[in-house]
Amino acid sequence: MSYPTTAVPGRIVVISASVGAGHDGAAAELARRLTAAGATVDRHDFLDLLPARLGSLICGGYHQLLTYAPWAYQRIYAATEHDGDTGRLTRAILRHAESRTLRVLPPDTRAVVSTYPLASQVLGALRRSGRLPVPVLTYLTDFSVHPMWVADGVDTHLAAHSVPAAQARAAGAERVTATGPVVNPRFGPATAAERDAARARFGLPQRAPLALLVAGSWGVGPVEQVATEIRDSGAAVPVVVCGRNQALADRLRALGIEHAFGWVEDMPGLMHASDVLVQNAGGLTSLEAFASGLPVASYGCIPGHGRTNAAALDEAGLAVWIHSRDDLKPVLGELLEGRLGKAQRAAALALFHADPVAGPVAEILGAAATTAPEAGNAPPPLRRPAVRRTAIVLAAALATTMLAGPETTEAAVARGGFHLLHDLGR
């Protein structure tokens, strides 16, 4: 099926999830571009569509899992990487999220876009059952595609590059289009004057090479180790963004890492000031660095999607994956001054369309054009008693898992509690 490249805009609903910042970041930029093209855009957080306000509990549990039991996250990710099985607890939650999702879709909805894998699973189920008569598109925010991203019933999966597109097809997606990434236009290559001004604003040295180390909105992973290794290598001065983890920023300063920031509003400016990005998760920050003309290295990657994203980015020729401390200095040097850095910059900048109403936006508008106005169905009534009973059972299972001591952690994983946190966290 081929969509037209131009379309009359209508109402488009974008569903993301406030888990970290990558899913919401992609949703925000898609919404901005669709609105600029004349569409009416509604945005929803999938966590708000879960029964009995379980979203905040699940998000917090996922955060704790990444912070205190990354080995468990790696085990779960590997166990589900081949078949994408959600487990019984997650499937029960998703079934109850279906009616809630339908209720937030106005009758004049022309298309629905998901930037979160579990939202795609719900939307795909609604599409298969005939309860959702409008096209559903999934925008893949990661460079590696866990099978959970591929939902039967979704009309189109949109990928930033041919590597994730191929992975989505291998996972069973029927229609996949490599459309390029979506990044806010504030991210772009800096002139020498912009670079100097940005360094002055952030209080950074004017002449030293700067390695921007970003650890996501939660500041997870071996950030202290990586920052000190970059400093001790002598290849560059580390500039660390710790997200909302202010305690991490304080610890880094205590270790002598002078340039450690918490949450940064002006990330485009900080990228303008920097010479290379060192990342550990492979999400939105990497795409922003590509748009800014920064070479990218993956190092000290977090388990699960951090490692698979690093492998996919390396395969695409967009970010080299540094596996050992011994390789850190020579590879950073090659990225800063050698052919590798130049090749990566060229490959990264080639991903982006000059026309903002192109790539994924054109696909979404084209899908919306295939839907007649007022085509939506009235949502079914919400069966609140059943939702409450299920939510109580699920909350109890979650609490049991999250409060389990070290001696019972593996048993908790086997029972599926951590599977639930993983599935709804990714």
Automatic annotation (TrEMBL):
Family membership noted in the UniProt record: Belongs to the glycosyltransferase 28 family.
Entry GO MF terms: transferase activity
Protein name: UDP-N-acetylglucosamine--N-acetylglucosamine transferase
Domain called Diacylglycerol glucosyltransferase N-terminal: residue spans: 23-183
Gene3D superfamilies: Glycogen Phosphorylase B
Matches recorded under SUPFAM superfamilies: UDP-Glycosyltransferase/glycogen phosphorylase (SSF53756)
UniProt organism field: Streptantibioticus rubrisoli
Origin: domain of life: Bacteria
Record keywords, A-Z: Glycosyltransferase, Transferase
